[in-house]
Amino acid sequence: MAALVACNGDIKAAAKKSRYTCERIRDLLREKTRIAQQTERKTQIEEVRKLAAQKIPIAEIAKITGKSANTIRQWVKSETTQKHYM
């Protein structure tokens, strides 16, 4: 990954400077992005559950977070969501 940074995001140049192929570098970048998105989603779910625990209405939580009311209901009610993202 350091080679990619040194090449200003150019995957081909990074592949030349490292032992990884272009495909492997792309895979590593996708994995890094996936993990960041997963972490962000987990944080959002935790925040929603904290707001719900404070008895804030689902419609209000939806406005605050920019998520749909159905998503908020699902996150608040479902323990499987919590397990999936942890």
Question: Which helices and strands, and how do they pair?
Answer:
Blueprint lengths: L1 H5 L4 H7 L4 H32 L4 H8 L3 H9 L1 H7 L1
Helix pairs in contact: 4-5
Word description of this protein:
It contains 6 helices and no strands. By secondary structure, it is mainly α. The longest helix has 32 residues, at 22-53.
Q: Can you describe this structure in just a few lines?
A:
It contains six helices and no strands. It is mostly helical.
- Strand pairing plus helix content: what structural class? mainly alpha
The helix count comes to 6
What is the chain-wise order of helices and strands? HHHHHH
Total number of strands: 0
Q: Can you give the mean pLDDT? A: 82
- Radius of gyration computed on alpha carbons: 19 Å
For the biggest sheet, the summary is: none
- How far is the N terminus from the C terminus? 25 Å
Low-pLDDT runs:
none
Helix residue percentage? over 70%
Relative strand content:
under 5%
Gross geometry = rod-shaped
